[in-house]
UniProtKB/TrEMBL annotation:
UniProt lineage: Bacteria, Pseudomonadati, Pseudomonadota, Betaproteobacteria, Burkholderiales
Keywords for the protein's UniProt record, in alphabetical order: Hydrolase
GO MF annotations, alphabetized: 1,4-dihydroxy-2-naphthoyl-CoA thioesterase activity
InterPro entries xref list: HotDog_dom_sf (IPR029069), PAAI_dom (IPR003736), Thioestr_dom (IPR006683)
Span of domain Thioesterase: 120-196
Species in which this protein is naturally found: Piscinibacter sakaiensis (Ideonella sakaiensis)
The name this protein goes by in its record: Thioesterase domain-containing protein
Keyword Nucleus: no
Pfam families, A to Z: 4HBT
Keyword hit for Isomerase: no
One GO location term (cellular component): cytosol
Length: 214
């Protein structure tokens, strides 16, 4: 069953990779959430999260041999199928990867009391972590086998506070520029009603994995 699922998922991801790229776009890609009610969006987000959690394996870090020779998209396909572990920080900060396509990654998180700062709202580091994850993984989806990346710069703008009154948020990251040695991406952190809570950008250095970024 897992082999059949992986074949199906790989086909879907391959089609996405061949689709017209959103890179160098002046504005974010249209979303099906744009025309739906907040209640319908929240219900769909929750269903998406449950479906993905049911397939995930254990939290951990993949061994180098497990990802050797695989593209970024192939790594994510294996992670979402449970064949590779998902990052432990997802459990620590209560968020998860819910969508990947070539040049795009979406993470979903639940603001909880344990994420609060002394001022009584969600800590800015939680905003930054979700945005950084979406930004970095959007870049990761574009990598060929044998290529790696590292974040060189991260900029976050928090425009509204978050509290437990907001049931779920999504960080939506999209690659803006992809070169041989550098990539840039933008991301937005939004609620089910489309309200913007933060936005950010990143610059990533790209390198041959054997070089380790040296």
């Amino acid at each position: 069953m897992r082999e059949l699922y992986l074949q199906s998922l790989h086909l879907q991801l391959s089609r996405a990779a061949r689709a017209p790229s959103t890179m160098n776009a002046a504005s974010p890609s249209p979303s099906p959430d744009d025309a739906a009610s907040p209640e319908a969006v929240l219900a769909r987000w929750r269903a998406d999260g449950e479906a993905i959690r049911s397939r995930l394996g254990q939290a951990g870090v993949a061994r180098p041999a497990e990802v050797a020779g695989k593209t970024g998209m192939e790594v994510f396909a294996l992670m979402l199928s449970g064949a590779l572990p998902y990052p432990p920080i997802a459990e620590t900060l209560d968020f998860q990867l819910v969508e990947v396509a070539h040049g795009r990654a979406v993470f979903q998180g639940t603001p909880l009391l344990r994420h609060y700062n002394p001022l009584g709202s969600v800590h800015g580091g939680w905003f930054a972590t979700l945005l950084d994850s979406a930004l970095g993984c959007a870049v990761h989806t574009t990598l060929a086998a044998g290529r790696g990346y590292t974040t060189a710069e991260l900029k976050v703008n928090i425009v509204r506070p978050l509290s437990t009154r907001v049931p779920l948020v999504r960080a939506i990251g999209e690659v803006i520029h992809l070169g041989r040695r550098m990539a840039t991406a933008d991301a937005r952190l939004v609620g089910p009603d489309g309200k913007l809570y933060a936005h950010g950008s990143t610059t990533c250095f790209l390198f041959d994995a054997a070089d380790g970024g040296a």
